[in-house]
Write a structure and sequence with these properties.
Elements (H helix, E strand, L loop, with lengths): L1 H12 L5 E3 L4 H14 L2 E4 L5 H4 L7 E3 L4 H16 L2 E7 L2 H16 L3 E8 L7 H10 L3 E5 L2 H13 L10 H22 L1
Parallel strand pairs: 1-2, 2-3, 4-5, 4-6
Length: 195
Amino acid sequence: MQLNAKRSRQSAHRSLVAFVVGAVQSGVANAISQVCQKYGVVYFNTNSSSTTESAKDCHRTKFVWDGNSHNFALAVVKASVDKYGKNWLLLTNDYVWGRDSSASVRKTLERFGGKVIDEILVPVGTRDFSAILLKAQQLKPDVVSPSIGGDDFKAMRQQVIVFHLLAPEELDLEQFEQLLEQGRSAADATVASER
């Protein structure tokens, strides 16, 4: 993260760039964004789903086009509450995107009558999820909502499969897509009713 911001700062200071495109996650996007704002360089933020990047931390030189945490929560939470249950466990990567994403899920969940029974903060760079998954299994939530990104998510997902924590039918992509579509319809209705 510091290296990306440092390179952006050096290039901007030397007037070598007119604009910057990309980021690998919200923390990197935030650091690059601050440098671009300081030097008046246009920044096209293409990959940070944290609501803070498209709302609170917006400024005159930054353009964000990515779904944000609030939109993702609206798309899936209600349908998941209806289908799976109201008691949720949040697994949260401990950085801006993870915390923001879980906050959006929590707010949306409460709106639709669900509750968070616990939240586990997961340090960035975690590769051994056994203790976290054991605790999740002991808590017996209706839904585990992971706001875990990148390689952390890949490591967690692999361990979920290895430890047989999901039944095969819970891995059904078609079922997930149907649930996502139900969530989209609910989100559209919610937006229409808020007008």
